[in-house]
Amino acid sequence: MKTLTQEYIKTLLPHRADNSHKLTFGHVLNIAGSINYRGAAYLSSIAALRVGAGYVTLASSPGVCQSVCALTPNIVMHPLLTRPIIYAEINPNIVESISIELQSIDTESIDEKAVMQLSVQLQQATVITVGSGLSIAQSKDQFNNPINSQHGMAVAEGNHGFFFALLTTLQTCTQTVIFDADALNFISHLLHKSAGLHQPALTLPNHSIITPHPKELARLLNIDVHDIQADRTHYAIIAAKQLHSIVVLKGKDSVITDGEYTFINPTGNSALAKAGSGDVLTGIIGGFCAQGLSPLNAACLGVYLHGLSGDLAAEELTQYGVLANDLIHFIPKAIKSLLQQ
Ligand SMILES: NC(=O)C1=CN([C@@H]2O[C@H](COP(=O)(O)OP(=O)(O)OC[C@H]3O[C@@H](n4cnc5c(N)ncnc54)[C@H](OP(=O)(O)O)[C@@H]3O)[C@@H](O)[C@H]2O)[C@@H](O)CC1
Ligand SMILES: Nc1ncnc2c1ncn2[C@@H]1O[C@H](COP(=O)(O)OP(=O)(O)O)[C@@H](O)[C@H]1O
């Protein structure tokens, strides 16, 4: 186990060829965001561009694409097919309770057929990032039956169908795939809730990176989050071996491991404990993968630089005042400070 150093991290920064064009620096396909989490789609996409990726396509529901487009002209949009919420036998006596239910349902669930819409992008992308703010629409710890019989209506089942179809397609991808946030929660569901249903064991694509926070890793390993926190390195290594992927276990002293080599990140501070900073990290790692780094090197460089951006941001804005969006502006300063070393 090694602690990452600035000298080592500097050697990982990808070279910028003079004779280059946008695709020299790779294409990130970012499948992210949902009606309640539009910010996650923005933050993860723009962070990839900020670390040097040449091209980022955001694939999401039309509403998310529209919102992100209003925030920035820098991201290419790929709006996906959605499916309407289907109501059955609505009982007028329970209209009030239905409207309460609807507030917690993503009204722009992505249709599973949208995976076909992505076939060209999935081939063209250098790296695929999935899950930041993708929303599973229902309680993460209790995936409900989509038929809410109490209210006599069939409700949309969030993005489950889409994600399942996507995961099947991704199995054959040769590029690095980074799974974050709700993608991890969905994978946990497939691993544990479907156990005993005689389904084939879940495998992730060959070059996967997963970026769980402790609770997400607890869900993946089906153990208590306190156990994870008591021995973070041990459980990160177990997950890397079980899922045959690079694991980034987030939090103070983030752990990066492929199951054999393990690194601890020394950068970062409590300024990063703010909603959305994990989405920025996913974009950063994706951006470095796009520029040709191996998944393990991209994860090490990404986590270190993300923390350094938080350190520089806190120097100027205090650990209280930094927003996830501020990190985006401090990424170039963090790269500059690495280059000046
Ligand atoms: N602007 C946007 O659009 C944003 C969008 N976002 C998107 O939202 C989606 C849901 O993400 P989320 O983090 O809100 O839900 P989730 O991971 O299930 O956490 C729920 C519970 O887990 C725990 N927990 C969390 N962190 C922990 C830790 N470090 N260590 C230990 N435990 C931890 C904690 O449980 P507790 O400890 O309270 O029991 C918490 O209540 C996701 O797709 C993300 O990308 C966000 O990034 C925000 C900004
Ligand atoms: N106290 C802390 N010190 C260092 N890094 C932190 C701290 N708190 C959070 N972070 C980092 O901030 C990010 C938070 O990600 P995550 O928990 O997924 O949040 P969100 O889902 O809101 O984006 C991770 O990269 C984590 O390592």
From TrEMBL:
> Which segments constitute the YjeF C-terminal domain?
5-338
What PROSITE patterns does the record tag this protein with? Answer: YJEF_C_2 (PS01050), YJEF_C_3 (PS51383)
Where on the tree of life does the source sit, at the highest rank? Bacteria
List ligand-binding residues for (6S)-NADPHX: A40, G133, H213, D279
Q: Name one Pfam family in it.
A: Carb_kinase
Catalytic activity as recorded in UniProt: (6S)-NADHX + ADP = AMP + phosphate + NADH + H(+); (6S)-NADPHX + ADP = AMP + phosphate + NADPH + H(+)
Keywords from UniProt, A to Z, are: ATP-binding, Lyase, NAD, NADP, Nucleotide-binding
- Cofactor(s) this protein requires: Mg(2+)
SUPFAM superfamilies linked:
Ribokinase-like (SSF53613)
Q: Which residues bind AMP?
A: K250, G251, K252, D253, S254, G278
Checking Gene3D superfamilies in the record gives: 3.40.1190.20
What does the record give as EC number?
4.2.1.136
Check the record and name the PANTHER family matching this protein. ATP-DEPENDENT (S)-NAD(P)H-HYDRATE DEHYDRATASE, ATP-DEPENDENT (S)-NAD(P)H-HYDRATE DEHYDRATASE FAMILY MEMBER
Q: Which family does it belong to?
A: Belongs to the NnrD/CARKD family.
The protein's job, in short, is:
Catalyzes the dehydration of the S-form of NAD(P)HX at the expense of ADP, which is converted to AMP. Together with NAD(P)HX epimerase, which catalyzes the epimerization of the S- and R-forms, the enzyme allows the repair of both epimers of NAD(P)HX, a damaged form of NAD(P)H that is a result of enzymatic or heat-dependent hydration.
Please give the subunit comment from the record. Answer: Homotetramer.
Q: What HAMAP family does the record point to?
A: NADHX_dehydratase
Protein name (record)? ADP-dependent (S)-NAD(P)H-hydrate dehydratase
Question: Species name for this entry?
Answer: Shewanella ulleungensis
